[in-house]
Amino acid sequence: MISQQKEDNALKQFFKKKIMTISEIAELMESSIPTVRNRLKKWKTYNSYNKNGRYYTLPNIPKFDQNGIWKYKGVFFSKHGNLSQTISHLVNISENGLNASQIAKMLGLSPNPRSFISYFKTISGLHREKQKGRTVYFSAEKSIYSLQKQRRENQAKIKEKCIDVQLPSESNAITILVDIIKHPKTTVKKCAERLKKKGTIIQPAMIRNLLQYHGIEIEKKLVKKQQLQWI
Predict the structure, then answer these.
(1) Per-residue pLDDT of the chain (231 residues; tens, 9 = 90+)
(2) CA distance linking residue 189 with residue 186, whole number of Å
(3) How many CA atoms within 13 Å lie on the side-chain side of 139?
(4) Has this prediction a pTM greater than 0.90?
(5) CATH T-level topology, domain 4-57
(6) CATH classification (class only), 83-161
(7) CA 187 from centroid of its chain's CA atoms
């Protein structure tokens, strides 16, 4: 039986350290590992999806990013559950599916796709397809899969058309997209004029090439901020 004083002391240290292992908590509470596991369930803690799942954090400590991921001192947590559940969630909400490198980048894990291939085979709710020698993961839900695949095909067609088109540098591309986020009802010409006033001279044609390359249509008033989240 754990005294209330020991439990309160453990929680106090937990808040202070933000993340702890079961062994550390058991030592603070002077209790067995099974008893601590029960407390962790009671506290509704999150379990890390890296570091062999050794670390835990309390539910009101993490500050999750837009993907539901929180990283602290090299330890990663997801509000979606374990690694399999998190990957399934990220793929299912993606616009056009994800490949292993993209998933790894979002999770903060090794960028080597090979490290994921065998693991992904065990995740339910995903549909795998080979596209140009690379495995792409889509939702197994038919309606979502159809939309994701169509968007990916459309994006590929646009990029193929633009492959020989002159595009602005990466830094200028970011400058352009930031301007469009601030002025979602703009035109290519007005965007070029604003950038020129700020000392960045970019021809309207080059701005149009960049937008077409990424499938963004500002002059038809179809720009949405979520289309620019890749910045």
Answers:
(1) 678 888 888 899 999 999 999 999 999 998 899 999 999 999 999 999 999 899 999 999 999 999 999 999 999 999 999 989 999 999 999 999 998 888 888 998 876 655 656 666 778 889 989 887 888 999 999 999 999 999 888 877 766 665 556 788 889 999 999 999 999 888 999 999 999 999 999 999 889 888 877 777 776 544 444 444 444
(2) 8
(3) 19
(4) no
(5) Arc Repressor Mutant, subunit A (1.10.10)
(6) mainly alpha
(7) 30
